[in-house]
Amino acid sequence: MDRQYSRVPRVTRLEYLIDLLKGVEKGYDRQRLEQVLSERKTWFEAQKYQALGRGRPFMKALRGARNLLADSIKMATQMGYAEYNSVLRLTEEGQRFLFSDGEEQNNSFASKFLNIYYVASELLVVLLRQPDEELEVPDTSHLEDTSAFQETLTQHRIKTDVFTFKTIRDILSQLGIVNWFKLRRDGFPYMKVYPTSFITDNRAKPGTISFTYLDTNYCIEKRRADQESLTKAIWTEYMAVTKDIPLRPAFYSNLRERVCYKLRISDKEFDSSIRMLMNISNAPFRVIWSSGTLPYSRDSAGLIKSLPPKSEQGQYMIYLKIAKR
Q1: Among the four residues 68, 77, 83, 200, which has the most C-beta atoms within 10 Å?
Q2: Are 8 and 119 a contacting pair, CB within 8 Å?
Q3: What does pTM read for this prediction?
Q4: In which domain, by residue range, is 77 found?
Q5: Of 55, 77, 98, which residue sits at a domain end?
């Protein structure tokens, strides 16, 4: 059985790990590997600033990625994708992972991640045990005191810290296994995490995601909403946001957040549905996008998640306008 770890290195995006493995495959030294990760980090920041309409960031902190490099190497070696033998090298498993793509790459990583990092599979099982299969925890993005967050995790018997929790949340969200959003309750910020997959103790099918927790085998199948449910939810939530005014601009990320929570689907599932509605002539309503700027500030991970997709012209679809045909 794979060795399991209770702490996850702070690698919040799969792109960092892939960039590292590509660099290792090319024989880069540590200095060059750090430069590659720094460039990726700067690229993410540039995307956020573009969506916020603030131009391109030039912060000195973005030029260094020493801690990110150390965490990426730790994750790569713990997951068996790389090993030290006088120098850092790819393993056969690492090569298979690196040269696969799309759903195959995501699913193989997800199974490995959930089996290697015990606390990640623990979080999924805890979610399943909640009355509504969701977990609401205080948001500590801008606070030094994380005691309220830690107390909530302890109540749910999740044995981890705030940084590991957020890393797991971000990775599993990117993989389409969970989703999350921010909300305010009684004036205080919270985050709500929920599964976007069917997680059962059935025997795993070939090509699906599977993991073991406390000697029980679990299988994950990503939830796909049917077209009728999607179009109904999109229209209902759009009208709620715009107060029943068709063709009134609504923020893409806000509408996506509401629809995804209602249907328990991933952001990518929503994005594909919106593109489909834009491109077919017999869709029940017209969907029009427009550019603009995101109006709010969030923590780094929250802002990346809130980024809408880009148009073919490279502009962010900040607003959506919808009307029935």
Answers
A1: 68
A2: yes
A3: 0.90
A4: 14-98
A5: 98
